[in-house]
């Protein structure tokens, strides 16, 4: 009886509001994953990371990692591109985890956002993704175009994420103080 009660209270910590917000942010990720700004044949500005980073800021690395993984699998089911490879789902899990570890319950500064984006770019884009592509297609582990792409996109991603988080914080502050939204 005591063990049963302990288990039920452990798993009941997720509120309806939290679950709904996470679901909406996953849905937004799926929509934004279909929209990119093309800067050339190999260069795109994507926005799909923004809802996952906001989710990570709000609910932490575990929830963000799980939500990003779910979004990756649902995204593949809705619009398959080649065959399913679980390494990319692991990329999504790690991405959500990194943003959660760096941003959750922390004071948001430009430096902190830059650190989160840089860490995610190094670990996911420059280390993990080349490993998966090598396993799948035998492509080289080190590719200069991938590095150039990440260098170009870094300030853009930092600016987008910083603006999103600062506007969210401002919105929440106004809401808490009864101001106009």
TrEMBL record:
Top-level taxon in the UniProt lineage: Bacteria
Keyword tags: Membrane, Transmembrane, Transmembrane helix
TM spans (from-to): 47-71, 83-103, 110-135, 147-165
InterPro entries from the UniProt entry: ECF_S_folate_fam, ECF_trnsprt_substrate-spec
Name of the protein: Folate family ECF transporter S component
Source organism: Neobacillus paridis
């Amino acid at each position: 009886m005591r063990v049963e009660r302990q288990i039920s209270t452990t798993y009941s910590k997720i509120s309806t509001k939290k679950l709904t917000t996470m679901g909406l942010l996953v849905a937004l990720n799926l929509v934004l994953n279909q929209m990119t700004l093309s800067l050339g044949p190999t260069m795109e500005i994507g926005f799909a990371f923004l809802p996952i980073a906001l989710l990570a800021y709000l609910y932490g690395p575990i929830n963000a990692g799980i939500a990003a993984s779910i979004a990756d699998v649902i995204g593949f089911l809705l619009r398959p591109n080649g065959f399913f490879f679980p390494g990319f789902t692991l990329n999504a899990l790690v991405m959500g985890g990194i943003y959660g570890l760096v941003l959750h319950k922390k004071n948001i500064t430009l430096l902190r956002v830059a650190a989160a984006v840089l860490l995610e770019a190094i670990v996911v884009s420059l280390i993990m993704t080349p490993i998966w592509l090598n396993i799948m297609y035998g492509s080289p582990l080190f590719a200069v175009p991938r590095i150039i792409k990440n260098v170009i996109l870094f300030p853009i991603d930092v600016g987008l994420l910083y603006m999103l988080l600062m506007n969210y914080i401002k919105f929440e502050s106004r809401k808490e103080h009864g101001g106009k939204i």
